[in-house]
Amino acid sequence: MKKIAILQSNYIPWKGYFHIIQKVDHFVFLDTAQYTIRDWRNRNRIKTPAGLQWLTVPTNGTQSMKINKVQIDNSTDWRKKHLQALERNYKKCRYFEQYFKLFQSILIRENWENLSDLNQILIKEISGKLGIDTIFSDSRKFELMEGKNEKIISIIQQLNGDHYITGPAARSYIDPEIFKRNNIKLEYMDYSNYPVYNQPWREFAHNVSVLDLLFCEGPNSSEFIWNVSKPLRTRRKH
């Protein structure tokens, strides 16, 4: 059985995104899909003493564009602001320096112009740090059929896959009968049982960038994503 996942790239996604990647043999970035504004494509959240804070990559993106055509607006020093926000709010975390340097090196490696390029390299690098050995591809490499379900199935078939894993939100457009007719097993992710960890700043929040977890738990981070069958840890107080 060959497991496939197909998702749009996001900016420094939350841990659930990496859980899907870890569960499959082949992960495809669907960046030929339509760009969505005020969404996860160009932003994500971190913890602060005042609550959750957005880190947003400024772009020229509109809903009439494909994700891989969206350009980053470098007229402001957004990279410096993101790095300063992470340092200000996480510098006391045990593994901050180790993983901050990785993120920093990628951001300053070049003057990023394409959002999809930046998202994809960040996701691949973070996946490596989490010990994930999944194969990555870009949807531009495939012959794509019209229709949401048909497009997904065409990619799966070109990869000789027979098991498709996706997030629970996909229930709104997935037609299970089409997958059944094409002998593809359909599986939805369950994000309800993630254990808590030693996260800073007040009430625990699961829906933040995976950087939060890496800064706090470092090489043990995978234990808090896909080893969810382990007993929940008692959260330590700060």
Structure write-up:
The chain has 238 residues and is of the alpha/beta class. It has one domain. Helix content is 32%, strand content 14%. It contains 7 helices and 7 strands, in the order E-H-E-E-E-H-H-H-E-H-E-H-E-H. It has helices at 15-23, 78-90, 96-109, 115-129, 148-158, 176-181, 210-217; strands at 3-7, 26-29, 43-48, 51-56, 135-138, 163-166, 185-188. The strands form 2 sheets. A 5-stranded parallel beta sheet has the order 5-2-1-6-7, with helices on both faces. Strands 3-4 form a two-stranded antiparallel sheet.
The proportion of strand residues reads 5-15%
How are helices and strands ordered from N to C?
Answer: EHEEEHHHEHEHEH
The main β sheet shows up as: 5 strands, parallel
Residue share in helix:
25-40%
Shape: globular
The low-confidence runs, each spanning 5 or more residues with pLDDT under 50, are 229-238
Task: Walk across the major sheet and give the strand order.
Answer: 5-2-1-6-7
Structural class label: alpha/beta
How many domains?
Answer: 1
Number of helices: 7
List the helices and strands and how they pair.
Blueprint: E1 3-7, H1 15-23, E2 26-29, E3 43-48, E4 51-56, H2 78-90, H3 96-109, H4 115-129, E5 135-138, H5 148-158, E6 163-166, H6 176-181, E7 185-188, H7 210-217
Parallel strand pairs: 1-2, 1-6, 2-5, 6-7
Antiparallel strand pairs: 3-4
Helix pairs in contact: 2-3, 3-4, 3-7
Could you write a compact summary of the structure shown?
The chain is an alpha/beta fold and 238 residues long.
Highlighted features:
238 residues, alpha/beta, 5-stranded parallel β-sheet, two-stranded antiparallel sheet, 32% helix, globular
